[in-house]
Amino acid sequence: MSNMYLLPSRVFFLLLSIAVTFGSQSAAAADRTALDNDVHAAIAQLLETSPAAKRLAPSAKGALVFPNIVKAGFLVGIQYGNGALVRAKQGGGYYIASYYNITSASYGYQVGVQTFGYVLALMTNAAVENVETSQGWELGVGPSVVVVDAGLARTLTTETAKSDVYAFTFGQKGLMAGLGLQGTKVTRLTK
């Protein structure tokens, strides 16, 4: 086998091990207060900038909120971020129920670095339960996830929203070609 093919695979496994190392660190090691503040700020920013998110928010049973995801790649890509599951309170509002991280690694054409916020609006109790009880939820497996793009955002209302989960991205900085949602894993942090 040519060394040309071994180098990208070695880089892939190195980046994957870095993502796993960072992903296994609990959010307790980080400053939970700072993460809580970032989660609240991310929700406010999303509701301020996305009319579709604002329309769906009162009907959501919960949301996975990742205020700062970083993805980077050159042939091999990784994506990582910490966040929280927020649950709807009876009578309005929400509370932070537990903490999660989101990771993915991929191989193929991709280049660049990007940061962004990501919210998965959980519209059903079953979707919330799936997140809370799974050992690691891989997006694309389990509840159906609909990515809200500009076209869908114009027509999405509580009447037309029939999926379990709606994905919103916001606050993108940088440029990244490649690396989609498939293979992205959401894991509960235990400490």
Please give a structural write-up.
The chain is of the alpha+beta class and 191 residues long. It has one domain (3-188). The protein has helices at 3-24, 32-49, 51-56, 125-133, 150-155, and strands spanning 62-88, 94-122, 137-138, 145-147, 165-177, 185-188. Strands 1, 2, 3, 4, 5 and 6 form a 6-stranded mixed sheet that branches. β1 and β2 form a beta hairpin. The longest helix is centred in the N-terminal third of the chain and has 22 residues, at 3-24. The termini are far apart. The model is unreliable at 1-7 and 150-160 (pLDDT under 50).
Number of domains in the coordinates?
A: 1
The chain-level mean pLDDT equals 75
H/E element order: HHHEEHEEHEE
Instruction: Kindly name the structural category.
Output: alpha+beta
Portion in strands: 35-45%
Radius of gyration, in Å, reads: 17 Å
The span between the termini is 44 Å
Helix fraction, binned, reads 25-40%
The count of DSSP E runs of length 2 or more, i.e. the number of strands, is: 6
Low-confidence regions: 1-7, 150-160
Q: Main beta sheet: strand number and arrangement? A: 6 strands, mixed
Outline, from the CA principal axes? globular
Put simply, the count of helices is: 5
